[in-house]
Amino acid sequence: MLLFNKTGQEYVHKKRTGMQRKDNLWKGTLENILDDFLRFMHPDADEIFDFRRGITFLDKELEQLFPPDEDEFAPKVVDKLAKIYTRGGEEEWILIHCEAQDKYAAVFPLRMFTYFYRIFDKYGKRIVAYAILTEPSVKERPNRYVIEFLGTKMEYNYNVYKISQQSEEELLKSKNPFAMVVLTVRSVLKKKDKRLDDDSLMEIKLALARHFLKMSLPKKKIRLIISFLKNHIRFKKSKNNIIFEKHYQQITGSSKTMGLEEQILDIAEKRGEKRGIKLGEKRGKKEIIINMLQNGFTDDVIVKVTAMTPDYVQKIRTSLN
To answer: Quick one: pLDDT at residue 192?
Structure first.
């Protein structure tokens, strides 16, 4: 099984919705390119895992172990629990803890260990753990948690993947969709010491979009990484979303209007505290749901954005398969 774990009033609301958007973006992206992540981390992943048997996500089981934190500003994690099989037919678990925040939390190693021992105690499964760190600092971070007293010692080690330390040149050479996700985050992190204006962000987004579209990848994968690009690198002025979309249309030769995912997220930011977001009548919502499903959004995110029931979203997802 695989676990994705991830870490004035107007200012507070904007900060909260920004964190929620970032967490949801990572959650949906990792869920949809989990196989690519494993291939990225392990070149021989196809010899280890039997991807033909699929990956089953178990969100309810995970929530029983880690109930949602009521503190809006507690360290956030991106949680996904899934089941995967090896080529030998064994069911295995993988822990991926994505700290999708700007600052590294000192309690991170303890949090990694807490996830490990609760899951192991409940299910007794072997776990290989990864920590994805998205902070701008290139400082080395611990890859273990150690506790000892009077000759008794326990050491828990896990794998750390720090985006700020990755080579942009090597990422550009990769054909793996997860590498493109890392490249998107890396392109902004390297300029964190500067205040990027919208013109600079526009240049970065268009350059990455051109690169992604040149890759020989299935259309579904291209849509996923383009969606991550659009929603991770955010303009300060919403009108620039429309300008970017026009440039993007010129690159792709598309005549579509502004991407629905941009409209949806802009509306969500403005109305995030309200119960549900009114995006039109049921027919219009169905079109939005279809678009979000095709762009890799998870059912949880779609339910929150459209205020429709999980059963309705699942029914549409099933009809698309």
So the answer is: 60
